[in-house]
Amino acid sequence: MESLNHTFFLWLNAPEHPSALALTLATFFAEQLIWAVPLLIGIGWLRGGEPTRKTMLVASASGLLGLLINQIIGLAWLHPRPFMIGLGHTLIPHVADSSFPSDHLTLWWAVAFSLALQRGPRIAGVTLALLGVPIAWARIYLGVHFPFDMLGAIAVAAICAWLTLREAHWYLLPSYQLSTGIHRRLFSGLIALGWVRE
C-alpha cells in the first residue's frame, strides 16, 4: 500500500521546475482557499437567522471534531510527509509532523459534508466538497501530502459530519444559547445600526 501511495504521489507531485501558472494556482488552492471556511461560517452567523446559525454551529462542530480525531491519529501513528523521507519536490514550507490524515482537507470536507447533509445550505456544501478536489491536488503537487492522506481526510470528515448532525440534540441548543449571548455582547453596536442580525 505504501509503495502505491508513493507511486501516486510521484505522478501528482510538481516537477523540479514547474510553470509559474501551475505554482500560483497550486499555492492559492493549498494555502489561501482554506480561509473561505471561516469566512462562510462567519457571514452565515452574522447575517443569518436562527436556522442558519444552528447550521453553522453543526458545521463548525464537524470541523473541530475532525481536527481532534486527526490529532489522536497523529499521536498514535506518525506517518512522515514526503519531504521527511526525501521524496519528490516540496515547494512550500511545512512543519515536519504527521501527514495522515490531512488536517487541511479534513476541516474543509467536514464542513462541506456537514452543510451538504443539512437542509438549507446543500448547494454550498456540495460546491465546497467539489472544491476540495483541487485543494487535495495542490497539497500533493506542492509536496506536503500523499494521496492516501486525502482518502483519510475524506473518511474522517464524512464520519464527523454524520456524527455531529446525528448527535446535535446533545450540544446544539446549549452551544447556540452560549454563542448567541456572546454575539449580542460583542456586536451590540452593529446590531443597533442594523448591520448585523440580533
UniProtKB/TrEMBL annotation:
Keyword list, A-Z: Hydrolase, Membrane, Plasmid, Transmembrane, Transmembrane helix
EC assignment: 3.6.1.27
Domain called Phosphatidic acid phosphatase type 2/haloperoxidase: residue spans: 55-165
Keyword Nuclease: no
The protein's enzyme class: hydrolase
SUPFAM superfamilies: Acid phosphatase/Vanadium-dependent haloperoxidase
GO cellular component labels: plasma membrane
Pfam families in the cross-refs: PAP2
InterPro entries linked: PAP2/HPO (IPR000326), PAP2/HPO_sf (IPR036938), UPP_Pase (IPR033879)
TM segment ranges: 20-45, 57-78, 148-165
SMART domains xref list: acidPPc (SM00014)
Tagged with keyword rRNA processing: no
A GO term for molecular function: undecaprenyl-diphosphatase activity
Annotated protein name in UniProt: Undecaprenyl pyrophosphate phosphatase (Tn6048)
Lineage of source species: Bacteria, Pseudomonadati, Pseudomonadota, Betaproteobacteria, Burkholderiales
The gene coding this protein: mmfB
